[in-house]
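Quick one - first record:
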Amino acid sequence: MLCTRCRIRTAVTDEGLCTFCSGTRPPLPDDSTAVSGPGGWGVGAWPRSPVALSRAVTVLLGVVVATDLFAIATGLRVRALWDRLATDGAMDVHSPDGESAERLYLVSGNVQGLAFLVTAVVFIIWFHRTRRNAEVFDPSVQRMGPGWAVGGWFVPVANFWFPYRVASGVWEASAQTRPDGGWRTLPRTPLNLWWGAWIATLLAARVTGRLWERAEEPAEIARAAGLVAASDALDLVAAVLAILFVRAVTRMQTDRAAHSLAPAPGAPEHIAP
């Protein structure tokens, strides 16, 4: 029978819990040595460092911000051209400059899509890594299994909520400790702001995308282009908040590991994100 809490390990207690969720997991033998991983972190029974992945995610999110700025600039240019056609009858949108603006707008959309795809892949890898680490830090506060750190993003409708539940467990398990070993409650502001912006971005992108596809008259095209630019601006904000979230979780996990887990021989006592 599977554990009634995590649903991923075999239950071993009368309450239907596994060794992780019941807190009965035996400690490592005194003479055991964890294999050293990147940055001095261990593997297997030890958490794995999310630092390198967090740096990659941060860089890629910066690329997303840049592509959003590019899309906003080209989108506002296209909007201005169609607005002039709708209000003054100016045919600039059909001029060589107008056609060039339209091509740049198309390129910006393609670049945005590529940047988002690559960033999403690396972000999910980082997200899964931190969820695995959270299992080592404190499995009792995990609301969903590690597999949902990946699969939760691809379940229709549920993807508006499942990843947040995973992230909430990661945040709680990774909370920093006081010097005396006591727990310090940290506000979830970075998590909540990022998730709120992400959901708003998803909804805005769907609505503005449909408006853009259905727009036919110059005034409709101009209005749709402006709304798409606003959606891109919201995506930019979500990317910045994602950077803050990634850095916060990575910093908490490095501090948590340095405080709670004995480092491998010769490894530094603290690894900065």
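second record:
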Amino acid sequence: MDHDDYMRLALAQAALAREAGEVPVGAVVVLDGVVVGAGFNQPIAATDPTAHAEVVAMRAAAAALNNYRLTGATMYVTVEPCLMCVGAMVHARIRTLVFGATEPRSGAIVSMASAHEFPGLNHRVAATGGVLEDECRAIIQEFFKARRATARTGDPE
């Protein structure tokens, strides 16, 4: 499998978030070619502000590996991670981050900060963006377009 294949798995997770009424972001954690964790945004359902797709996927991976360190793992996520998620990746020792679409408002890799490169960090996460960018951007844009339409009319589109 390649970056596109793993990102498609993350997009499938994002679709689960959308179906649950959550912002459609999905993530998978891969170690040695095996998906060891997957997750989608669920802060509303979990009543947990930290239940972003990346954190959910890292929690699943840590449980599967019985280790809070995910050394050598690659995180695939449909949208550029926020500051909290980048911090969690650093603490988990994620080796590589691969993301789809940038997040201009809160993205902490290339948009509002380069948090993975902050001085003083004891671990660096390599980052690559733009994988299946159009598909990743489309699922988010379609979600918010539908939400805005519902807010205006009171009826889902």
